Amino acid sequence: MQEIIRDIADALVSIDSSRIPYHNYKPGVGPYSEPTLIKKVRDILNENKKYFNLVQTKRTPDLLIKGFWALEFKIVRPFGDNGKEAENWSVNLIHPYPGNISSLGDCVKLGRANLPERKGIIVIGYEHNPPKIPIEPLIKSFELISEKVMNIQLNQLIIENRKNLVHPVHQQLTVYGWELLGLKFIAH
Fold first, then answer.
1. Residues 140, 176: contact at Cβ < 8 Å?
2. What mean pLDDT do residues 3-17 have?
3. pLDDT, tens digit, for every residue of 21-59?
4. Per-residue CA distances from 45 to 54, 111, 156 (Å)
């Protein structure tokens, strides 16, 4: 997991350093939508000898490294491209109901998927440097709700930070990743 998290963080820096803006947003990786970003990460990973043509984007999982990893992604940004605090930015991570689009819902969906690959949850967080609203309490909340409320078994958290991004608001990124070990019991 450490290796794939590192490679994803490096791919994000590569996207950022291209300075190609997403639609009409400011240049940098921070404003990219989740589907567009995952496709760009897929393309970069597939250029790497280690993953050469093994990486696919799918509906479930978001990113599949054939024979190795089935990964679900979420992006969290406390601030938008315009520098204003984003509304409901934390909901994509901690909405605790199966069948929704949060990371918790992704854990349930991925845990129920009949896939031979190891399963993982990836969160990409963008912050100011230093953070004006730190993402860390949200990550701790995700872990707590996963374990204590949803009975989701996650392996130890792996973290990779990258600073000095080109975007004036999304100045640093952190990739958080957990291997999904299983679901104890989830109703519904």
1. no
2. 98
3. 999 999 999 999 999 999 999 999 999 999 988 999 988
4. 9, 24, 24
Let me know: does 173 contact 159? Beta carbons within 8 Å: no
In one-letter notation, the amino acid at residue 126 is: Y
**Token pair listed for 70:** 């089935």
CA distance 101 to 24: 26
CA neighbor of 124 nearest in space, from 114, 138, 112: 138
186 has pLDDT over 60: no
Which pTM was predicted? Answer: 0.95
| Domain range annotation of the chain | 2-122+137-183
E strands along 58-148, which residues? 63-65, 69-76, 118-127
C-alpha dihedral (62, 54, 40, 63), degrees to nearest 10: 10
Task: Please answer whether residues 164 and 126 qualify as being in contact, where contact means their C-beta atoms are separated by less than 8 angstroms.
Answer: no
Q: What is the mean pLDDT of residues 59-72?
A: 96
